[in-house]
Structures are given as structure tokens and as C-alpha cells.
Amino acid sequence: MFSKSCLSWFSYQARLNKMKQKILIVEDEFIVANDLRIMLEKAGYKVCGIAPSVVKALELITTKEPDWILLDIFLQGDKTGIDLAGQLTGMGIPFIYISANTNQGILEAAKATLPYGFLVKPFREKDLMVMLDIARYRHEQNLKYNQPSQPSLHTQIEHIAEKQEPVADRLKQISAALHPVVPFDFLWITKSNPRTSTKDINMVRLADGKFSLIDNQSLLKAMNVSVRDFKTWNNSAINANGKSIFNGYDFRKLRMESPWTQALSDHYQLESALITEVERAGEWFQFVFFNQLSDLYTKVHTGIINQFSKSLEIIVDKVVYGKDPVSGTPLPASNIIEKPVITRVSDPENTQDFNGITGNSKLLHAAFKKLELVAPDDTSVLILGESGTGKEKIAQTIHKLSPRKNKPLVTVNCAALPLTLIESELFGHEKGSFTGANDKRIGKFEQADGGSIFLDEIGELPLEAQVKLLRVLQEKEIERLGGNYTKKINVRIITATNRNLEKEVAEGRFRLDLYYRLNVFPIELPALRDRKEDIPLLVDHFIAKYGKKGSSGVTQISDAALNELQDYDWPGNIRELEHLIERTMLLTEGDTITHIELPGAASANHFSSEDHFKVKTMEEMERDHILNVLKMCKGKVFGAGGAAEILNIPSTTLNSKIKKLGIKFEFVK
Ligand SMILES: Nc1ncnc2c1ncn2[C@@H]1O[C@H](COP(=O)(O)OP(=O)(O)OP(=O)(O)O)[C@@H](O)[C@H]1O
Q1: Which atom of ligand 1 lies nearest, measured to the CA of 358?
Q2: CATH of the domain at 86
Q3: One domain, residues 378 and 307
Q4: Does the keyword Nucleotide-binding apply (predicted)?
Q5: Pair 30, 100 in one domain
Q6: Are residues 217 and 246 in the same domain?
Q7: What element of type H or E holds 17?
Q8: Distance of alpha carbon 140 from alpha carbon 273, whole angstroms
Q9: Cα(269) to centroid of ligand 1, in Å?
Q10: Confidence of residue 144 (pLDDT cuts 50, 70, 90)
Q11: Is residue 93 part of a domain?
Q12: How far is the CA of 631 from the centre of ligand 1 (A)?
């Protein structure tokens, strides 16, 4: 055992070690920078400067020669921390990111610069010190043994480019290496000046996340574009006018100016682009990265792509327009390109189902893309959408696609929990901790340990429980009611709501700090009325589902009935459609649904003359009952004489039922 004096000698040495370390803070928010300075100085470090921009940081690096840099990502000026990071690696200065931005694309970009750590704001003093300690230790070891921690992207690309493998294979590997840093769904590499259309390279990202090389001829066929049109369009390469990021308005303008971009983006549902050019022996080559997400590209990506311009040159020289590695002859594009197998998500003929989620609309694809990005991480996800849009299904898919898939996914409907039992349900209780607690209970968080917890209708959680939840998120530990110890837990949190949480925060019903913690990665699910093109697929899906389950002989639906469904507004979204199809199948004789009785349809319909055949589902009965009570109470939900009191249920529960059942205020009047 160490004696007390021996221990204090160690901490004295540790402090001496720190004192030798000069740290530069690169942070544009003065308060945060100052806080950091105070924490570091208290711990014995020397802060040699604070820089709010990359320009200032470079100046201070030259004059102060820092040993370490704490680096924010978005800074004053047009350069980001990630731009600076590239230069720091070259200068051999170790750095740690400190940022509130945990957007997946940015994290990937940050990762590619090989930082010694990434601290998410807000953080505790202890977190900063531990991270710095570990980073310093790792850096010392690296210096001692002279080991680069992992190959840089450039080294990876160099290595792939040199491989004696077919061009298509190398391009796939290069795309996979580039994608985490500059995400794309379609990469077009073309010789922009002088122009030669035969040498275009088109890399498409498939549904499984892999890449495929597709030649122009197959592309034209898939896009239904004539060779003549293509030749005319293709003579005009994209004129980027010195710009590199094309989001929103700029992307729409680019589409108008470049018919080829328009055709590509229509076919592949592309919404943004990042363009860069490299020069090789007097010839210019354009790399156009397209993405299905709008507003995806930021100056972080331009910074990265500029850092990797040498890698792009290698791609041009050694892979795309170079010599065949085996025969040594120049690579004619037509020979190196394989026939495509297009099974990507957006191909209506091939993919209609993404992990059990049916739909092929653009809006749903945007949600899938986000889901794919976030699923493998531990990031908290907030799913937003009206009742019945499939939020729970999305939560299940996130869990299924995550490394936690073999551990439990515990679902909690916050609206259905009785007020008095919420805390014990979520965090558990010890025997005798309150009247009626006859046994000890393991809470939902503990049940989900190692896996994920899905907190549905999080907007309904009362304020007291919100405080506790916040603590769990911050401390990653729970305390059972009546227990006097805490337990560490490792749970990924997925939440969902059909409420406008920002409004809830503004009106004091939801804690702002909790909202920030949960809203790290929001996924919005579109209402069915905004993606009616998915109705035929969904109908087929439900006919198949209930055909298998029940005794109905229905296997299809007539065009006329389908048209009726597409004309309806779907206030209850997919849940409403599903129940309607299930019910209609029960009532249909033969194998084809030819008519659908839509809610509110006029008496001219097929079934209303035979009311005695009409079977109401439990949900419909519940809906009718609530509606009648609401009418009786003149729409009053809360308080004395309100519908909740008459129905003897908490008003929060009633409110969520009203939403779930698609009851609108207009129906009550
Ligand atoms: N894209 C989809 N493909 C197939 N079935 C779907 C899809 N989306 C939702 N469903 C089905 O629709 C029903 C409602 O979905 P879910 O319960 O996930 O919605 P929700 O948004 O969580 O609703 P609420 O907010 O009311 O809890 C479920 O039976 C689900 O299986």
C-alpha cells in the first residue's frame, strides 16, 4: 500500500507534468472558452491562448507553440475546426474536439482527422480531465513507440489504388472509405475539361450500403434518357462557378442549369451536391458527390475534400484514368465498367420494404437514410410524427440495426402509465418503499440494461419524472424508489412523440435541458396524406399480412377501390389504413376488394344499407365512446366536468387517446 506522503508525491508529479503542457483553446463562444480556461488552470495546465477562429489559431500556434489544442468545430470565419485539424496532424500537434454538434456526418468527418478525443458539450469538469489524461498518455505512448494510431484515409486510398484488382472493385472500396467522411448516394467523376463523355464514372450507393459502378449506357436505360439527349446535355459539364456546396436553392438552380443533374437527381432522388475539381497534367476532373438528404453538405465537407485532394488525384491517376495495373494499357472506361445490379432502396421495382417498413416515397426514404446513419451508434433518437405514422416500428428497426440487437428492447408508453407509478415503473422500487409496494420491482431501465429503451409519447411524461429521467441520461445510473444505492446502467434511449416538444418547452410543460438531451438526432415521419404514393404498397402489404393470418380469401384490390383510398386524407395514418383493410377483408366475399367504406363516407356506400353486418373494432368502439363523452362535455377534457373526469382516466391518457384515435376538435363541435 502507498503511504499518504507517497500518494501526495505522485499527485505533485502529475501536477508538475501538467504544468509543462501548454494548451491552446480554439473556441468562438467566449463564456465556454473562459470556463475551459478556468478548469484547465485549476488542474495545473497552462492555457497559452484562446482563438475564436482558425486564422487566429494559426497565428497563436506559431507564436505560442502549444502542446495540445482543444478544438471546437464551428468557429468564427469560414473555416471550421475540422479544417484546422488537417493542418494540426501535419504539424504533429495533438488535439481533442469539444463540440455540441454530434450530427453523424460531422462526427464521421471529425473522426477522419484522427483526434485524440471528442468531448460533447455540455460536459463535466471531471470528463474533461479524464479525457485529457488518457489522451496525453496515448500520445506519449505513440511518441515513444512511434506508432501512428491508425492509417489515415489518404493511406487507405493509396493502398487500395495500388491493389492489383479490377477497377470496379477498387472503386467500390474507395467509395466505402470515402463515404464516412463525405457521405454520398451517387458519385459522378467526369473529365470536365476537355470534355469526353465516355469516361464518366458513376458510383451508386445500394440499399445495403454497398457501392456499385454503373456505366452510362445502363444508366441511360434505367433513367429512360435517350443517347441523343445525353450527348447534348453532357457537352455542358457542370459549371460550378467556383462554388462547391449545392444545397436548397443552389441545388435547384444547379438542376435547372444542368439537365444531366436534373435527370440524375430525379431518378435517384438526390437533393444536394458537393463539387470539387482536380487538375492532372493540364486536364481537369470533376468529382460530384450527390446526396439524397437536402442541406447535407457544409463547409466541414469542403474542408475535408480539400484536405484529401491528393487522394482524389491518386484516384484519377491510378484508378479511373490511368493504366491497367495488369496489362499496363490505358483504361478505356467502357471496358472497366461492370453491369449494374440496382437493388437500391429507391428502386420501386426492387425494394418496397425496409426492414419491415413498407413504403417507397421520397419522404419515407429521407427518414430511412437518417435511421441507417444513426442506428449503429448509441446516440439518443427522437422520433417525431403524428399518431399512427409508424414511430414504434421505426424505433424497433433502429434497435434491430444496432449492435444492441441481441439485447432487450423495452417499450414504455409514457401516456399509459398512472401518474403515481411512473417512477417505480421506470426506475423500480424496493419492497415497502411506498404503500402497496409489497415486492421489489425491477424498473424498465434496468430491464433494458445493455439494450435499448423506447419511451413512447415522451411528451406526456410529468415534470417530476422528467427530472429523474434527465438524471439517468446525465449520470447513466438509476436509483430504485426507496433504495439507498445507485446502479450504473447502459441503455440506449429512443423516444417518440406526436406533440410539438418545442411548444411544450415554451409553455413550461417540458424541461428544456431534457429536450436538448433527447433531441440529439430527430427523425421526422411523414403523415400518410403527404406520401399517398405509398398507399398501394401498404395496401398490398396489409392484404398479404391479414390474408396469412385470417380466413379471408382476399388477395387483391381493384383500381377503383385503390383510387378511393388515395383520395382520403388519413387522419389516423397507417394505423387507420391497416384497420380499414383488415375490416374490409373480413367483409369482402371473393378475392378482390372492390369497395371500401371510408370513415365519413355518404350513405351511398356498399355496406351502410346492411348495418347489421357491420362489425366494429374495439378501437372504433372506444373512439365513438370518447367522441360521445367529449360532445357531452362540449370538448372539455381537463378539470371538473371534463371528459377525463367522466371517463375516470387521467387527462394525459385521454389526450393521448384522442390523438391516437384521430379525434379532431372539429368532430366534437
Ligand atoms: N411503413 C409501414 N409499413 C407497414 N406497417 C406499418 C408501417 N408503419 C406503421 N405500420 C403499422 O401501422 C401501425 C401503427 O404504427 P406504430 O404503432 O408504429 O405508429 P406510431 O406512430 O407509434 O403510433 P402512436 O403515436 O399512436 O403510438 C402498426 O400496426 C404498424 O405495424
Answers
A1: 3
A2: 3.40.50.2300
A3: no
A4: yes
A5: yes
A6: yes
A7: helix 4-19
A8: 41
A9: 25
A10: low
A11: yes
A12: 28
Spell out the residues 6+ positions from residue 167 whose beta carbon is closer than 8 angstroms to its own.
Answer: 213, 319, 320, 331, 336
Q: How far is the CA of 498 from the centre of ligand 1 (A)?
A: 13
pTM, two decimals, is 0.48
- In the predicted structure, residue 246 carries a pLDDT above the cut 50: yes
578 lines ligand 1 (CB under 6 A): yes
DSSP code at position 489: -
At residue 131, φ and ψ (nearest 5 deg) are -60, -45
The CA-based dihedral angle spanning residues 113, 116, 121, 124, taken in that order and rounded to the nearest 10 degrees = 180
Average pLDDT value over all residues in the chain: 80
Q: Indicate the number of domains in the chain.
A: 5
CATH number at residue 188: 3.30.450
pLDDT digits (tens, 9 = 90+) for 581-613: 988 988 888 889 988 888 764 333 333 333 434
Whether 84 contacts 47, CB under 8 Å: no
Same domain? 28 vs 129: yes
Does residue 425 line the site of ligand 1, with CB under 6 A? no
**Is there an atom of ligand 1 within 6 Å of 574 CB?**
yes
Count of CB atoms situated within 10 Å of the CB of 164: 7
Task: Give the mutation target among 549, 574, 622 for probing the ligand 1 site: most ligand atoms within 8 A of CB.
Answer: 574
Specify which residues 280 forms β-bridges with: 283
Ligand 1 geometric centre to CA of 398 (Å):
14
Centre of ligand 1 from the C-alpha of residue 459, in Å: 18
Which of ligand 1's atoms lies nearest the C-alpha of 656? 26
> Is residue 365 in contact with ligand 1, taking CB distance under 6 Å?
no
| Residue bearing the CA closest to ligand 1, atom 23 | 388
Return the axis-axis angle of helices 104-112 and 362-374, rounded to nearest 10°.
40
Predicted confidence (pLDDT) per residue in 77-100, tens digit: 888 898 888 788 767 789 999 988
Q: Is residue 1 part of a domain?
A: no
Residue labelled with grid coordinates 435547384: 252
196 and 328 belong to one structural domain: yes
Does residue 117 line the site of ligand 1, with CB under 6 A? no
Q: Which atom of ligand 1 is nearest to the CA of 525?
A: 21
Residue whose CA lies nearest to ligand 1 atom number 30: 390
Q: What percent of the chain has pLDDT over 90?
A: 22
Greatest C-alpha distance within the chain: 94
State residue 539's pLDDT score: 93
CB 593 within 8 A of CB 554: yes
In ligand 1, the atom with minimum distance to the C-alpha of 359 is 1
Per-residue pLDDT at 360 = 80
Q: Are residues 361 and 482 in the same domain?
A: yes
Non-local (6+) Cβ contacts of 479 within 8 A are: 427, 485, 486, 487
Banded model confidence at residue 405, pLDDT cuts 50, 70, 90? very high
The DSSP call for residue 124 is -
Q: What residues pair up with 279 in beta bridges, in sequence order?
A: 284
Q: Is residue 5 assigned to a domain? A: no
**364 residue type, one letter:** L
Q: Cell numbers for 304, please give them.
A: 475535408
Residue 392 near ligand 1, beta carbon < 6 Å = yes
Distance CA 282, CA 152 (A): 28
Domain boundaries, position 628: 620-668
Determine if ligand 1 sits within 6 Å of the CB of residue 386: no
Task: Confirm or reject: Cβ of 497 under 6 Å from ligand 1.
Answer: no
Sheet holding 46-51, edge to edge: 46-51, 22-26, 68-71, 95-99, 118-120
The total number of residues written for the chain in this structure: 669
For ligand 1, whether the C-beta of 258 sits within 6 Å is no
Give the number of other CB atoms < 10 A from CB of residue 518. 25
Regarding whether 136 and 193 lie in a shared domain, the answer is no
pLDDT over 90 (residue 175): yes
- Residue of 229, 239, 522 whose CA lies nearest to 381: 522
